[in-house]
Amino acid sequence: MSGSVVGTPVQMAPELLAGDYDAAVDVYAFGILFWYVCAGNIKLPSAFETFQNKEQLWSKVKRGLRPERLPHFSDDCWEVMESCWASEPSQRALLGDVQAKLERIHEHALTDTTPHEDGGNPDYEMSDEDSLDKL
Question: Is 0.85 topped by the overall pTM?
């Protein structure tokens, strides 16, 4: 991606471009943050890497472009993300509902001891390259 887009705040809700701000903006931002937490790294979503400038990127975001689902995202986590990213702000999840879903996801994670299909640990195994500590 060109240097002009690096650092573009992709976590901003599309309606902010029009100056509209309400609680739905925070829900959208949470969904983006949750994507990064679940991704386990700070790399820009690959869906956003192909743009030469921020105008191209924002045009696509306004038309519904969102970060991609990574293979290790659970269905429950992906559902939370998508519910936060609805194009229409009034259709986004309420943070109280998100909290309840996150509590269920957390409880399930604490009790899930089933190995993944690849035989590995149920926890996502990050490489050193993906570490959030490399800032």
Answer: no
**Cα 47 from Cα 66, distance rounded (Å):** 7
* Domain boundaries defined on the chain: 14-112
Long-range contacts of 45-48 (CB under 8 A, 24+ apart): 45/10, 48/1, 48/5, 48/8, 48/10
Inter-residue contact 23 to 95 (CB < 8 Å): yes
Tens of pLDDT along 56-91?
888 888 888 899 999 999 999 999 999 999 989 999
CATH 1.10.510.10 correct for 14-112: yes
Query: Alpha-carbon Rg of the chain, whole angstroms?
Result: 16
Which residues, other chains included, contact 86 with Cβ-Cβ below 8 Å and sequence gap of 6+? 92, 93
Q: State CA 33 to chain mean position distance.
A: 5
